[in-house]
Amino acid sequence: MGMYQGVNASEGIGIGTVMIAVDPDLTFEPHEVADAAAEKERYQSALAVFCEKTQAQADHMKTAVGEAEAEIMLGHIVLAQDPGMTDAINGAIDGGTCAEQALVDASTMFENMFLSMDDEMFRLRAADIADIRTGILAELLGVEVVDLSVLPENTVVVVHDLTPSMTATIDKKNVAGIVTETGGRTSHSAIIARALEIPAVLSVANSCSALRNGMTAIVDGSDGVVISEPDADVLAKYTAMAEEFAAEKAALEAFRGKETVTADGIKKILACNIGSPDDVANALDHDAEAIGLFRSEFLFMDATELPSEEEQFQAYRKVATALKGAPVIIRTLDVGGDKEIPYLHMEKEENPFMGYRAVRYCLDNADQYKVQLRALLRASAFGDIKIMIPLVTCVEEVRAVKELVEVCKAELDQEGFKFNPDTEVGVMMETPAASLIADKLAEEADFFSIGTNDLIGYTMCADRGNDRISNLYNVYYPAVLRSIKNIIECGVKAGIMVGMCGEAAADPLLEPLLISFGLEEFSMSAPSILRARKTISQWSKQECDELAERALSLSTSAEVKALLEEAAR
Q1: Burial call 364-392: b when 16+ CB within 10 Å, e when fewer
Q2: Domain count for the chain
Q3: Which of 9, 92, 273, 417 is a plausible cystine mate for 102, CB 3.0–4.6 Å?
């Protein structure tokens, strides 16, 4: 019996027979090309076939999984046809390089560019580029890529890297679990695995060689553990756990369509975080009551020039209309000096996390920012759009954005456009500075939404991507809890809505404390919604207050977590 630790990417227990999916051999001999026109034609043919196959995968995914996941595949087509990439490849071929080498060089350049960025949405693009490179290279070399569409029942798929194109072909009823040697919780593969509801453990070192075809394996996607050749006792234990997990999941369905209320009847809002308008269908499928964070970056990332007011308006209107009057919080452009969006002409910085980014960049480029603010205001005529400012550290920033919003309102009024004159402007509370002046910001802002992902990192001075200090990136540290408590209480005292759109909002251990502090809106990824509704329903405010008092009296994160685990329901 062997036990292997990895990343818990998609929860659940899967038990089945291992099948190792071997990556195709994509080696080639680089050679000089005499007829550049014919070589470019060869590349274009391979690209066309790749796009055709990817479109078919997206169509399959739309019906088998959902629109949001299909969009990931459609994004591959956009990236593969990106003019920057195509021009680089054609230029290299004109210089005598073969299509294979031109593709590898150009795609590697783009991949490294995305990998150097701090925003995880951009880093996802690096994995997409690698996936595209594999697909087009396979076409150029006439090699078959991994096909997971025809598998025997109860297969545990083991693969070096589960790419979106592989997950797009999976027949979920035959896959018991997924194990990879690379990837993390936020990778597109993990997102798709969660949508497919297949237990997955990623980043299990050397799993392709440690596990063998035909052996029995248990994939514990909740704890991030893989067990090979389990003995009878372990197998019986995990079989019981799998049945319990399935029963729990079925029981959560009882909370579908219900109000989100505490045990003593205090109403809360359960919202969803989304990255594009196509994610809305999935949010509503999982019973979201609102959109607590719509990251507007997707519009800017997938464009070769600044998206027009009309393009932005259409995207925001689509979400507002779909929510039928329920609130939609849209975060304005959150880019930084680490993100090389060529048309924004941003300089690379030594320390982009603390540099020229988010609201700082937007206010410095007011004409460009006004395009987004005007589009948001116009969309407010079609639903309850709320504008959120990222990375605020001082009152001046909020006032400056509100002044710009007023300028945009006056312009739109003059031009005869409809908009909601009372559109709310709020603050994403994600810096220690914002937390320390939360009382002052509450006088300026119409609402708060706490971005715990950055708040934890900035408060603990710990990069969540750095394994050596990952123990410090933790919401249970007293410093982080005090910060969250102060933000919520200042907002509640000022009479404004306070929400949370970081990962911590979905943490069942933390939710009782958030209830105690007075959090009104909990925003999370779609699959977490029903469980959060159940957790919130199990606690009264008094019980939460008693637990919070005990938690805040403790000195270490380990003590806090142990207390919350002991109290968990």
Answers
A1: ebeeebbbbbbbbbbbbbbbbbbbbbbbb
A2: 3
A3: 92
For residue range 110-143, list pLDDT tens digits in order.
888 887 776 666 677 888 898 899 999 999 999 8
Beta strands in 203-296 (DSSP E): 216-220, 225-228, 269-274, 290-295
Lowest-pLDDT range, 247-251, 264-268, 350-354? 350-354
pTM across the whole model: 0.72
Active site residue 188: yes
Detail the residues annotated as belonging to a binding site for phosphoenolpyruvate. 295, 331, 453-454, 464
Q: Are 168 and 55 in contact (CB under 8 A)?
A: no
> Is residue 62 a part of any domain in this protein?
yes
501 given a catalytic annotation: yes
Domain membership flag for residue 27? no
Q: What is the extent of the structural domain holding 494? A: 258-567
Q: Are residues 241 and 352 in the same domain?
A: no
Residues 387-435 pLDDT 10s: 999 999 999 999 999 999 999 999 999 999 999 999 999 999 999 999 9
Of 98, 188, 208, 408, the active-site residue reads 188
Annotated binding site: 295, 331, 430, 453-454, 464
CA atoms within 13 A on the CB side of 85: 25
In-domain check, residue 28: no
CATH number of residue 111's parent domain: 1.10.274.10
240 & 263 share domain: no
